[in-house]
Design brief:
282 residues; Caprin-1_dimer; Caprin-1 dimerization domain-containing protein; two-stranded antiparallel ribbon; 1% strand; mainly alpha; Caprin
């Protein structure tokens, strides 16, 4: 059993992850794009922060030059040229701050969109897990009922609304029921036994092309889907008990003569010996 478990784990480990649904894939791509844009905006905000700080320092220096010039202090040519660019520096500072506010707003909008996408992804994931669990319970219910002899007879002959299945297909289903719903094996722990059963269910739900019981899990999944859609398992017929034939006792009325014959005892004549006869006659 442990060897089978290790083999099953090895088989699953080599497979790629199952494909996402189109909606989940789209949400995942949107979330990835939002994350990338958020990174770009964060980097841009950092650069703007440093740029604004440098412009503010330059503006303060130019304001100092203007004050010194206003107070009549002499300035060199470079300082005078810098003073002439004061308006331009002020405009650049306002533009950088406006750009910073715009980027901050975009960052907040992207953050909200990212959180919304994450919540949506979480809801879809929960729905997918519920659907998978519901399917497992449905399959388990079908397989458990297929272990009943009268249910097998219905599918052999197509009775009581059951599909008519070839003997080979029916036997595969019965054997698969033993794999997925096995009797307790005391030689291994419950966890190990249920883990092995879960591997069979996993391959079945994924519709794997791996071989099982002379066919594939995909074929078994399609076959079980047909059984579920047939409607037979909505109300599985109970096994009909075979009753022994009943014996009915009848009574006919008796006539008065017959009744008298039944009630009056019959007196048998008795023989009398000679001495007794003589005594009676004397």
């Amino acid at each position: 059993m442990k060897a089978a478990k290790q083999q099953g784990n090895a088989g699953h480990g080599g497979e790629s992850q199952p494909a996402l649904s189109p909606l989940r894939a789209a949400l995942g791509a949107a979330a990835a794009s939002a994350q990338a844009y958020e990174t770009y905006i964060d980097n841009g905000l950092i650069c703007l922060k440093h740029k604004i700080r440098n412009i503010e320092k330059k503006k303060l220096k130019l304001e100092d030059y203007k004050d010194r010039l206003k107070n009549g202090e002499p300035l060199n040519s470079d300082q005078l040229e810098a003073v002439e660019k004061y308006e331009e520096v002020s405009h650049n500072l306002e533009f950088a701050k406006e750009l910073q506010r715009t980027f901050s707003g975009l960052s907040q909008d992207l953050l909200k969109a990212q959180r919304k996408a994450q919540r949506r992804e979480h809801v879809l994931q929960l729905e997918a897990e519920k659907k998978k669990l519901r399917t497992v319970l449905q399959v388990q219910y079908v397989l458990q009922n297929l272990s009943r002899e009268h249910v097998q007879e219905d599918f052999r002959g197509g009775f009581n609304g059951a599909l008519s299945l070839p003997s080979r297909e029916l036997e595969r289903l019965v054997q698969f029921a033993k794999l997925t719903c096995p009797e307790r094996n005391a030689s291994v722990s419950v966890e190990e036994q249920m883990e092995q059963s879960s591997l069979y269910f996993w391959d079945l739900l994924e519709g794997s092309e791996k071989a099982v019981l002379g066919t594939t899990y995909k074929h078994m999944k399609d076959l079980l889907s047909q059984l579920l859609m047939s409607g037979y398992f909505e109300s599985v017929p109970e096994k009909k008990e075979q009753c022994l034939p009943e014996f009915q006792l009848t009574f006919s009325p008796l006539s008065p003569e017959s009744l008298m014959e039944c009630t009056q005892p019959e007196i048998q004549p008795q023989e009398v010996s000679d001495p007794e006869r003589a005594l009676l006659m004397g």
